Amino acid sequence: xxxxxxxxKPLDAIRARLQRDALDGIKNCETASCFGSSLQFTGxxxxxxxxxxxxxxxxxxxxxxxxxxxxxxxxxxxxKGEDDTxxxxxxxxxxxxxxNNILGVYIEGRAPLYPKIDAISFQNDDPxxxxxxxxxxxxxxxxxxxxxNCFTLPVRLAVEAMRLNGRNEAIxxxxxxxxxxxxxxxxxxxxxxxxxxxxxVILVPGLGPEQPGVKLDPGxxxxxxxxxxxxxxxxxxxxxVSGGHVHPNKTPYCEANEMVNYLIDVCHIPMDxxxxxxxxxxxxTNLRNxxxxxxxxxxxxxxxxxxxxxxxxxxYINGPMKEKVVKELGYTPFSSMKKLSATETEYLxxxxxxxxxxxxxxxx
Length: 364
Description:
Residues 201-317 form the DUF218 domain. This is DUF218 domain-containing protein. Residues 345-364 are annotated as: Disordered. With 364 residues, the chain is α/β, with parallel strands linked by helices. The chain folds into two domains: 2-167, no CATH class; 174-354, Rossmann fold, CATH 3.40.50.620. Helices cover 53% and strands 9% of the residues. It contains 16 helices and six strands. The chain has helices at residues 2-7, 9-28, 32-38, 43-59, 61-72, 84-108, 115-118, 127-144, 152-164, 176-182, 185-191, 218-232, 255-265, 283-296, 311-317, 321-329; strands spanning 201-205, 238-242, 274-277, 305-308, 334-341, 344-349. A six-stranded mixed β-sheet has the order 3-2-1-4-6-5. Strand 2, helix 13 and strand 3 form a beta-alpha-beta unit. Helix 2 packs antiparallel against helix 8.
């Protein structure tokens, strides 16, 4: 695929424009935001790239095979039923919106959807930040040189912007940590007699403390206590604790980490009955991310999930969240939602939860 992208004249023209603007920016940009705006894809370029990717998927066997394989491990389940050309175009448009958004938020300083917890870490006119971005652009140009294609500069600069802003939440717990807690889940799930349980998992959404230095909000601890009671009553074989580094902004404490420690140390729940989901930043993604675990780990998706929380969040889940989730994710990651009590809600997970959200780089 890479060779066809590099050999495409329309795509190479975009590569050349970006490279010229990058070199010009190193000399003339007085602020970091200048780089962020000049190295985004324009509307016309987005259309040109989409057209060319579609053409390649129609005319090049290797590209068609790549599209076929990509559909199998598809992070774009909402587009899975589309023909190849529509799939390619929609996937590209999804990703480029997210890419431009990263450059806009974390270099230009535009407001993200949740400014209080997701915003840029620098002032727009910070000369040190400008110099760091310029140095990053120079490294990209020097490192990739003649091997650059039209995607190299925006993608590599987006990664560098996230690094400079200290925003690695989306990958902070890859591999070893997640494996330590969750690797056994899929195997154990195969052995469970699921008919013995009314629910697949008990989901405990995190509650981030607003005060710096506080590891676990007392309200979060109470949610864990309630979940432990229901676990011991045999309602589900697993408790999922869900929540990332959210409140206060850039907190070193992860909601899921602190809840799992509490459930083990205080509630004495066995570790192999706990599932850690350390990424979600909102109630909507508490549900979505839990659903992804269910679909990935041999947990039956046809069995309902039990959410255990407090009365305020229960009302939100069964009220305003239903509209908000469609606005923010573009779909509803649940069906058959039902409020059971002031602190309990059940729902069925839906497979569209696998759809990637490129507009939230901290938890896509």
